[in-house]
Amino acid sequence: MPAIELSGVAKSYGGGDHAVRNLDLVVPDGAFMCLLGPSGCGKTTTLRMIAGLEQPSAGTIAVGGRVLDSVEQGVYVPPEKRGMGLVFQSYALWPHLSVRENVEFGLRMRKVPAPERRSRAEAALKMVHVFDAMDRYPSQLSGGQQQRVALARMLAVDPEVLLLDEPLSNLDARLRLEMRAELKRIHEESGATIVFVTHDQLEALTMATHVAVMNQGELQQLAPPMEMYARPANRFVAEFVGSPAMAIVEATVEATVDAGPAPGGLAASLLAHVQGHDRAAAFGIRPEALHLGTPPPGAWSGPATVEAVLPAGASWTVRLRVLDTELFAVTHTPVEAAPGDTVTCWTDQLHLFDAAGLRLPALDNNVAARA
Ligand SMILES: Nc1ncnc2c1ncn2[C@@H]1O[C@H](COP(=O)(O)OP(=O)(O)OP(=O)(O)O)[C@@H](O)[C@H]1O
């Protein structure tokens, strides 16, 4: 299966601001890559450029070593000659064709003989579990079934590259979860190279083999999902990936009001804990890395007042006032403390960022390795 390589890719619409800037991105052979980021960060533009639906303003896109776009070399291969499968948010099934005919449509266009069309369509419909609805029309299907038919239509063609733009966004929570598992299975079975656009960090973490986080047209980090979660490259990624979000505690204040962190406050306490690491400008604490109880040796700990306990069945979220700062802790064991109680909280993983918001890895090893 082909790898997709973007080098120095940029896109501006009508000479306006850049929707994508200087993007270097390699989607390895057989990867399931999620492009993740807030609305307007350039994810869809990137996907559309890979599909050939938009032409880059600069840079090169190559798939399997074949250059499909190069502004410098004047190369542009149109979408229909790229052999990629596309599924967009609106699934655009033909309303006057049955499910089977919709799925066979792409094969008919490729002049695949009827018996083979039939068997490939049936296999694809089985794969997404809508085989039984084969003779119905799109209007007789639920949103989730229509979504699956759109996927089947793409899978029947058996493309080596699948491009998906928020294809699960119209589904309810339960069906989304089911389809995530389904897509993951389809990826493993087909071995295709997949690029999947989403603004949902959970979707990216659960499905992808690689996640590329974008913000304002720029790549922030490219990493396997758990690596990104454990070691976000900067504050943007740290706060965007994870729910509830990582709490950020500023260790420094603006130079103009430079009184340093409040004495006796959380920032001062954390700074004292990482003494000697004077480049630390902010600390990050994930809710599940903040614990109640007796700390192990070497961990940072401090007094906290319990403000609220929010049980959610399998987990408990606790709002704490830690010195001068409000933080959330998430635990999977029952919380005995009640609002108003004073407890000891501690963390086994502190993330440190410098003044530019970049992760400080050397400090990370010193501090986080104590877990
Ligand atoms: N056809 C267009 N003409 C002009 N500007 C566009 C066009 N398409 C996108 N943009 C702009 O480019 C930027 C990136 O848009 P893009 O759709 O790629 O972002 P996105 O991350 O996919 O967002 P969303 O999640 O909301 O779809 C935005 O500022 C958007 O307004």
From TrEMBL:
Listed Pfam families: ABC_tran, TOBE_2
Protein name per its UniProtKB record: ABC transporter ATP-binding protein
SMART domains: AAA (SM00382)
Keyword Nucleotide-binding: yes
Any GO MF annotation of the entry: ATP binding
Taxon lineage: Bacteria, Bacillati, Actinomycetota, Actinomycetes, Streptosporangiales
Species this protein is from: Nonomuraea composti
Coiled coil feature spans: none
Source organism, top-level taxon: Bacteria
Keywords, ordered alphabetically: ATP-binding, Nucleotide-binding, Transport
Stretches assigned to the ABC transporter domain: 4-241
